[in-house]
Amino acid sequence: MIFAKVIGTIVSSQKDESLNGKKLLLCKEVDYKGNPLKSYHIAVDAVQAGEGSFVLLSFGSSARMTEATKNAPIDAVIIAIIDDIQITQTLK
Amino acid sequence: MIFAKVIGTIVSSQKDESLNGKKLLLCKEVDYKGNPLKSYHIAVDAVQAGEGSFVLLSFGSSARMTEATKNAPIDAVIIAIIDDIQITQTLK
Amino acid sequence: MIFAKVIGTIVSSQKDESLNGKKLLLCKEVDYKGNPLKSYHIAVDAVQAGEGSFVLLSFGSSARMTEATKNAPIDAVIIAIIDDIQITQTLK
Amino acid sequence: MIFAKVIGTIVSSQKDESLNGKKLLLCKEVDYKGNPLKSYHIAVDAVQAGEGSFVLLSFGSSARMTEATKNAPIDAVIIAIIDDIQITQTLK
Amino acid sequence: MIFAKVIGTIVSSQKDESLNGKKLLLCKEVDYKGNPLKSYHIAVDAVQAGEGSFVLLSFGSSARMTEATKNAPIDAVIIAIIDDIQITQTLK
Fold first, then answer.
1. Residues of C in contact with B63 (CB under 8 A)
2. In the CATH scheme, what architecture does the domain E2-81 have?
3. Which residue ranges of chain C lie beneath pLDDT 50?
4. In this predicted complex, what is the ipTM?
């Protein structure tokens, strides 16, 4: 999984019907210090994340393992809102 | 998922029979501002996208979860046409 | 999916038995204009592609969805020979 | 699979319920000499790894094949703690 | 699939129990001329590969499709030892 920050919402009226009622959020990848990285992802929200939330993204078939996403043609999901990251090791 | 713009159509007569009747579209990846990125993908269309459409692509086993793509040997599908992206957060 | 050109054949006598009788082809990734890119892939042929063919490659679990590849431990398959690509949009 | 070093712990109270009781660890990718690389991953611990452990990470649907992770929406898991790497070949 | 050269062995006593008895090999990715590339992978051996072998690696859920790897939480497997690569096309 990777970290991301929710920065926007996707609006789509013409879409696969399995997406009806699902919240599609624009997520910017960030590092573990919260610094933005280059990648962004559109993910379904499974945990009531809001705009600006610092979240955990899961990808691939694993993204379909939540109640909000099962059997849907989506490959990314928000599975947690991050409260804190406790860094205990340093790497040179 | 990522954003893309549909820029062309693939013509193939010799192909896996499960692809018969499926529309194979050439999609250029774009960022959330619509600027073209380097990657392109060939995806099956599940939402009646047209040339020039701004779309959402899903990959991997999840790409087989639409009516248009189930059990087919394809790893990318267009699952939505984007109407709008509402950016509510800025990242420095 | 991505485009590739078939540039060679793999010879292997000691291999997983599910690969017996399968044609393993060396494929160089190309862009939609046919220009070679850096990546190469070894893929199973599901469509009677030949040396020099311009083909479509599919990856991951989707690569096991053809008659030639089902249940085999392979992650790339040739699913179509490209006749033509009709580009209808330009991106600055 | 790749090598990583465990460098921290993720704290999250609002998460998919399947994650309750699972340890989410921050892992920095390292090369086979132990030198840190650029990527990091958040992975579930299946082997009682601790802070600073040198571990093996597995990804994708395979990450759901341990007792600790089955059916959970996670795409990375720690499957082993590395005792030693015996390098027997050199590559120029 | 990609090519790799086996350059070492992983020793681990604390690991997911499904890994007991499986040989975990350190593999350096090489191009089709045998030149080492930057990536390395740890893969399970399904074909009695040895140190220095020039092999074919398969990834993802497909890596679990051999007798040696089924249901194990591993995402990379050695499926063939390469005898020869016959290049028949040149790309400028």
1. 62
2. Beta Barrel (2.40)
3. none
4. 0.96
